[in-house]
Amino acid sequence: MSNIKCTMCYYFVMIELKDIQKRLREEIRNSNLSQKELAEKVGINPSTISKYLRQDKFPAIDTFANICEVLDVSADEILGLKK
Fold first, then answer.
1. Do residues 38 and 17 touch, judged by C-beta distance below 8 A?
2. Comparing C-alpha atoms, which of 56, 55, 79 is closest to residue 67?
3. Residue 74, CB-side half-sphere exposure with 13 Å CA sphere
4. What is the C-alpha to C-alpha distance for residues 17 and 8, in angstroms, rounded to an integer?
5. pLDDT, position 82
6. Distances (CA, A) of 48 to 6, 42, 79
7. Contact between residue 50 and residue 35 where contact means Cβ atoms under 8 Å apart
8. Residue 12: CB partners within 8 Å, gap ≥ 6?
9. By the 8 A CB rule, do 71 and 28 touch?
10. Which residues contact 44 (CB under 8 A, 6 or more apart)?
11. Closest-CA residue to 18 (of 58, 47, 73, 45)
12. Which residue, 24, 38, 62, 72, shows the most beta carbons closer than 10 Å to its own?
């Protein structure tokens, strides 16, 4: 019996918060909503939106999903998973 070695290569994409924040800022700008208006539609404090865009903060998954829904953008696009 021969000894067969199978090697699999995986391509990993490093997702960085600064890149997510950049895409999120762009989508907010494209939506023509202010951060305050977005926050009101999502049901969170406007200063929280600012923290998501400028600090090392990321929304809870349900909040993130609601932000994407309001902005009419896929989470994959914001996360940089969709090419």
1. no
2. 79
3. 6
4. 28
5. 75
6. 48, 11, 19
7. yes
8. none
9. yes
10. 59, 63
11. 58
12. 24
Give per-residue pLDDT as tens, 29-76: 999 999 999 999 999 999 999 999 999 899 999 999 999 999 999 999
For 12-32, how does the pLDDT look when each residue is reduced to its tens digit (9 = 90+)? 667 889 999 999 999 999 999
Question: Tokens 């067969």 label which residue?
Answer: 4
Contact of 53 with 21, CB cutoff 8 Å: yes
Residues in Cβ contact with 23 at an 8 Å cutoff, skipping those fewer than 6 apart: 77, 78, 79, 80
Which tokens go with 26?
Answer: 């762009």
Question: What stretch of H or E contains 27?
Answer: helix 17-31
Token pair in block for residue 14: 């490093």
